Amino acid sequence: MLADPAQVQQITLNLINNALTATESGGSVIIQAAAATQQRHGIVVQAVHITVEDSGYGIPSEDLARLFEPFFTTRSEEGGTGLGLAVVRSLVQEHNGEVWAESELGAGSRFHVLLAVEGPTTLQREEIAA
Description:
Heat Shock Protein 90, 4-stranded antiparallel sheet
């Protein structure tokens, strides 16, 4: 993968830290990385799909669209600055990747990162093979 290892580490650590913060004692955090094959404009592109999933309290649907904005936080009372996910988005974009979140109140959250392994192609979540 053509990526800066320190930046990929920062991406994963920020997501894992958020998942741990959102998960109560006895809950779970699951981290997965899988190869993904994408086809775009007739070209097969190899990618890595990283998922960080927690069994935490979830994120209100009205907040999902703003999660990656600088200084937006759902945890201001706990000391959240709203910079962690903004940094994640910025680093993922530097790698021509994509990041997005899925969540349901009371049922936890799942964050996805898609990074190309080779080539300059920008991947999109719609292209992930099911």
